[in-house]
Every structure is written in structure tokens, then in C-alpha cells.
Amino acid sequence: MEKEKATTFEEAVARIEQIVKMLDMGDAPLDKSLALFEEGARLIKDCGKLLDDAEQIVVQLQKSTDEASREIIYDRED
Fold first, then answer.
1. Is 0.85 topped by the overall pTM?
2. Domains: count for the chain
3. Rounded to an integer, what distance in angstroms lies between the CA atom of residue 22 and that of residue 39?
């Protein structure tokens, strides 16, 4: 079984935009429209996870920066 290629956030957003345009045209057969909708829903879910992961990284970086700042301030008071 072949693994799916990992998609970047930007690639996923670009594909979602393509899907929306194709669905808005309304000339695709029902089965094709459903397949596009399913692909778009999966990509939106993937983008949400990527954003959640990025947010967690930012929170961790902020925490470590805040802790380092407190340590520097504490050291200066000694």
C-alpha cells in the first residue's frame, strides 16, 4: 500500500480553493461533486490539525521565553 504524500498547509488551502471553485461551477456529476466535497472536508480537518499543532508550538515557545525572562530577572536581583 502506498502512503499519501504529506501536504503542507499552503498546498491544502490552495486545493480547497480549487475544490470550492469546481463545486461552485455546479457542472460536475453528483459522484464527482461528492468526491470533491469529501476531499475538501478531509483537507479542512487536516488544516485544523496543522493549525492546532502550530498553536501548541507557539504556546510552548512563549512559556519557555517567559521562564527564561523570569530567570534573567531573578539572576539580576541576586
1. no
2. 1
3. 12
